[in-house]
Amino acid sequence: MPDVLIIGAGPAGLSAARAARRLGAAVTLLDSSDELGGQYWRHLPPSRPSERESVLHHGWATFTALRSELETDDGCTIIRGASVWAIETRDGRPGAVFAVIGEPDGAGRSQRVFEPDALVLATGAHDRTLPFPGWDLPGVFTAGAAQALAKGERVAIGSRVLVAGAGPFLLPVAASLVATGSTVIGVYEANRTKSLLAGWLPKPWQLLRAAKKGTELAGYVLNHLQHRIPYRLGVAVVRADGTDRVETVTIARVDASWAPIPGTEQTIAVDAVCVGHGFTPRLELALAAGCALGADDFVTVDEGQQTSVSSVYAAGEITGIGGVDLALAEGEIAGHVAAGGSVLDARLASALAHRRTYLAFADRIENAHGIETGWQGWLTDDTVVCRCEEVSYGDLCGAVAATGGASLRSVKLSSRAGLGICQGRVCGRTVEELLSTLSPGHSDGPGHSDGPRSAAADRVRTDRRPIAVPLRLGELAAEPG
Ligand SMILES: Cc1cc2nc3c(=O)[nH]c(=O)nc-3n(C[C@H](O)[C@H](O)[C@H](O)COP(=O)(O)OP(=O)(O)OC[C@H]3O[C@@H](n4cnc5c(N)ncnc54)[C@H](O)[C@@H]3O)c2cc1C
Question: How distant, in Å, are the alpha carbons of 157, 286, 332, 338 from that of 15?
Fold first, then answer.
């Protein structure tokens, strides 16, 4: 039986580990976090436990069943606090996988090198927020951060909070904010009614297969009604203002391309604002392993979740944004096939059916709630684009003009956008999209080796990070144990 190494212990990785174990493979499951569950199943600090943690999360019983099955299984080694920082490939197969183990900023972390027969990548996604004037003020949160604080700490980001952006994720975020004591004064979705109808209405009977999602949605609608939270379409936050922290936000109606419609601005007093425009896959390890990306900029996989690299599988949000149920189904398929099983095996039938259902659901989300290009119309010259290096939109325009805009590398080096502590995780996609607008001549050519959306002619992309997590120089120099 093969040794299967799984990176990421969110829904996809946990499900992959269980499926691989059920076929008898020796499994090692790594996660940089000190808890299992990923972004979806979070945990309160041990000092502030909840008597009924299950009411704080959807599907908590699914999680606890997965966790106890894996924790009590001698064939599954779980290593928490293990951050994978590099992957080498050998002859088109996974080679060495390098991890540091210990507190993220701690000294004396140990190092491990793994050489598995098969590798499952389940590294998830970051939440994405488009920049707008004032988004760097204290009190402005990404939707994911607000959700993480609410679910993982029971901390409310403010008492009077406006939620805005795009996508169904805004609904659970609003519900969590209410549950932690915030007053949510409105949820504002940038896409307009027509876009939502075009995304959600076709072949409505297919939605019946995802009835569970309908029940969840009904819960959120009820929550909105109970707490009198308005839900408005075709409206975006276009600026935030305040002296030491956010005090007001300006919302405006936007057209179908998300360009703000002049004269529709309205200023609202808030003490916090929470904005999310979807998710960006965490691709650095997949790129390091040599996995090909598709036109949608996610890792491409075949029926058995195998990537373009032999014995490297991918599951969950790095293959497309589809939520927890899709991640669980993909994880099960990836783990089963990585352990030597076949997609034709009867025991995968249910996971394959779930994957079909939730892939169709994910398409609807993208069609209804995808990011349009007109948001660039709400940027001003002094809007910060790269928060780590404090690079403004004006600086970026200057760098593009000075370098001719042909090379993302030149634009990054001359403006420093994407070179700060987050290594472009927050601003990378934004910088690429701005560069392709500012340099309209630069489209990606055919035969592009890094995937289709590397913004500039030099084929550089911001997702490529040779060292995937922050590492001390001493750790880099040390011989792994
Ligand atoms: C901040 C945030 C909050 C979210 N909250 C919700 C929510 O409340 N409800 C909802 O429906 N959806 C939520 N989502 C969407 C959610 O991520 C997915 O639906 C689901 O968790 C995807 O599962 P996954 O297994 O693909 O990835 P994840 O759950 O993201 O799991 C990926 C795991 O990989 C680990 N990892 C990544 N890189 C490395 C590395 N280099 N080394 C070691 N480990 C690594 C991470 O620590 C993480 O535990 C949230 C997303 C984000 C970004």
Answer: 32, 19, 5, 12
